[in-house]
Amino acid sequence: MIPPMEQGIESGGRSARPRAPRNRTLRLSPDEEDRYAAKALDTSTMTPAPDGRLRLEDVSNAVFLGDSSELGPLLPRVSVDVLFADPPYDLPKVFDGDRFAPMGHEAYLEYTRAWLGAVAGSLKPTASIYVCSDWRSSSAVYLALAERFTVRNRVTWKRDKGRSSASNWKNASEDLWFATVSDEYRFDAGAVRVRKRVVAPYRERGVPKDWFEDESGRWRMTGASNLWEDLTVPFWSMPENTDHPTQKPEKLVARVLLASSAPGDLVLDPFLGSGTTAVAAKKLGRRFVGIERSPAYCALALRRLETAEPGSRIQGLDGDAPSDKPEGLTTP
Ligand SMILES: C[S@@+](CC[C@H](N)C(=O)[O-])C[C@H]1O[C@@H](n2cnc3c(N)ncnc32)[C@H](O)[C@@H]1O
Q1: Could you tell me which of 85, 92, 62, 82 has the C-alpha nearest to residue 74?
Q2: Is any atom of ligand 1 closer than 6 Å to the C-beta of 89?
Q3: Nearest Cα to 134, choosing from 88, 83, 69, 68?
Q4: pLDDT in tens, 168-192
Q5: Residue 255 C-alpha to ligand 1 middle, in angstroms?
Q6: Does residue 57 register a pLDDT over 50?
Q7: Facing residues of 175 across strands?
Q8: What is the whole-number distance in angstroms between the Cα of residue 249 and the centre of ligand 1?
Q9: Does ligand 1 have an atom closer than 6 angstroms to the CB of 93?
Q10: Per-residue pLDDT tens for 72-101?
Q11: Is 319 helix (H, G, I), strand (E, B) or coil?
Q12: Residue 284: which residues within 8 A CB-CB, separation 6 or more?
């Protein structure tokens, strides 16, 4: 049984409530929504490659309106370097009027197998795969990934949102499973180093050994762990925020792409939502292909992509966001 505090169904629809002046949530007028949604691609107008699949040039930097179970098998074979997938969790949720009902472990495992199978042919042998989940769906995601790929880690990230419960622990984390197609894959640990507080500062001839000091303390740079505490879900004062009910932070996707892809690589998101993966990929100079079945969310993604440029700022990556608490730093 789902605890009462987690039963709330959030809607992805546009709220009629007036917004505070400092609310930076991206909202589209009905006209804008129609205009941007019309820019989402439709495979029926495309000339397929000789193997019947889509051509690489047609999927590079593309947002497709459609179902990933149908479009996934059409993606060019062996073309994708990183798969980042944020499927609906096994929870009641409404995505733009499309009701996703909880199905239970066995059915969710089957569901995960099905969508992974739909996109698997597009992955390069060197590809990395990241799949989001909450604690409830995490075991099914692990099992489905392990059937096809080498599971390498489970990142847990702090996601502090929602109310606490009188009868359960408040859920304040999500999982991000990391797998690879083979043993040959890219992982650039140097691109995702984090600051960690130095507990025992060591000096050599009076000079700090591998640490530095600023007004907030003594730090050293170290490899990122699988516990990410410096993230926040997008909220109303952040320009990346939209009305999508389960939007992920750009910083989360950016960290993945910095570690597991090179500039120019192709990143696939078969559940694109408001476009976070595509936006982070574009800002970091990666190519993207996204599939989303809601025209309203395709419109949000395309609107966000319009203003995202290679090199554009990703909030928190440069250390200036309120959420960007260095790893290991505790506040009183
Ligand atoms: C958890 S949300 C993804 C949110 C996204 N990561 C973001 O930051 O906005 C899942 C999305 O997948 C879409 N979706 C669900 N099933 C789909 C399918 N079979 N094909 C394409 N999109 C689907 C939903 O409309 C929803 O927007």
Answers
A1: 62
A2: no
A3: 88
A4: 999 999 999 999 999 999 999 999 9
A5: 20
A6: yes
A7: 133, 156
A8: 15
A9: no
A10: 999 999 999 999 999 999 999 999 999 999
A11: coil
A12: 254, 257, 258, 261, 263, 310, 314
pLDDT recorded at residue 232: 87
Residue spans of beta strands (DSSP E) within the chain: 62-65, 80-85, 93-95, 98-100, 123-133, 150-158, 173-180, 194-197, 203-204, 207-208, 212-214, 217-222, 227-228, 266-269, 287-292
| Ligand 1 pocket mutation pick from 9, 95, 108, 233 by most atoms within 8 angstroms of CB | 95
Which residue minimizes the CA distance to atom 27 of ligand 1? 273
Quote the pLDDT of residue 45.
86
Determine phi and psi for 180, rounding to 5 degrees. -135, 155
Regarding the beta carbon of 88 and ligand 1, being less than 6 Å apart is answered yes
Distance 5 CA to ligand 1 centre (A): 23
Predicted local distance difference test score (pLDDT) of residue 319: 54
Q: Which two tokens stand for residue 232?
A: 């926040």
10 Å CB burial of residue 96 (0-12, 13-18, 19+) is: buried
Q: Give how far Cα 105 sits from Cα of 89, 132, 207, 227, Å.
A: 11, 16, 56, 25
The dotted CATH code for 24-191+226-307 is 3.40.50.150
Residue nearest (by alpha carbon) to ligand 1 atom 26: 273
Residue 137 CB–ligand 1 contact under 6 Å? no
**Model confidence, pTM:** 0.90
Start-end of H helices in 79-134:
105-120
**Does the CB atom of residue 241 touch ligand 1 within 6 A?**
no
| Separation of alpha carbons 44 and 66, rounded Å | 11
246 lines ligand 1 (CB under 6 A): yes
Quick check: CB of 291 below 6 Å from ligand 1?
A: yes
Look at residue 17 in the predicted model and tell me its pLDDT: 63
CA distance 167 to 4: 9
Q: Report the distance separating Cα 83 and Cα 225, nearest Å.
A: 21
Given this model, what pLDDT does residue 326 score?
Answer: 39
